[in-house]
Amino acid sequence: MRVVVADDVMLTRQGIVRLLRDADVDVVAEADDAESLVRHVRLARPDAAIVEIRAEHPEVGVLVLSQYVEPSYAMRLLEEHPERVGYLLKERVFDVAILVDALRRIADGETVIDPTIVSRLVGRRRREDPLAELTEREREVLGLLAEGLSNKAIAARLFVTERTVEAHVKQIFLKLRLGTNPESHRRVLAVLAYLRAGAAAE
């Protein structure tokens, strides 16, 4: 996996680079500002970049690291780019396994949202809650979907079979009235519905 790392704070940037290289991730370039970032991405064509550069290079996965819990920004990021994108708090870089896993999943076309942002929204409701029809277990599954977990990972977390998770996910799609077109990225649309419901209650 080939990655470009960008951060205007040298110590932060070099720390991330060292963690990734220690985990056998190929860091092909570093950038300290937007101009050099775009130049490096154009030349190196990485699998992922740890910043927002999707507009000019839609094929490159994007992982945003932030020191702030910003559910509204994470939602906007998802709405604009429903695939190959992630939003994690900077504190996650202290656990290189989480960072590398997020990068790999993004490179594979998945979406990753920091669990802190997801948990911040859990339980919040609004008057016309689009999630009102979901059972407690379906909400739990949707919350784990919002963290970017696969059906297999959700099954392991909840101590149920993968087939049970698939059944819950199918019900979630039906109750949220999401189409059956595979191109519509239903998992991401379901996550957006979940995040909107929480953000509207803030």
Report what the structure shows:
With 202 residues, the protein is α/β, with parallel strands linked by helices. The protein has two domains: 2-112, Rossmann fold (3-Layer(aba) Sandwich), CATH 3.40.50.2300; 122-199, Arc Repressor Mutant, subunit A, CATH 1.10.10.10. Helix content is 50%, strand content 14%. The chain contains nine helices and six strands. α4 links the parallel β5 and β6 (111-113). α6 crosses α8. The termini are far apart. The model has no long low-confidence stretch (mean pLDDT 78).
Describe the secondary structure blueprint for this structure.
Blueprint: E1 2-6, H1 10-22, E2 26-31, H2 34-44, E3 48-50, E4 61-66, H3 71-80, E5 85-89, H4 96-107, E6 111-113, H5 115-121, H6 136-146, H7 151-158, H8 162-175, H9 186-199
Parallel strand pairs: 1-2, 1-3, 3-4, 4-5, 5-6
Helix pairs in contact: 3-9, 6-8, 6-9, 7-8
Gist?
With 202 residues, the protein is an alpha/beta fold. Helix content is 50%, strand content 14%.
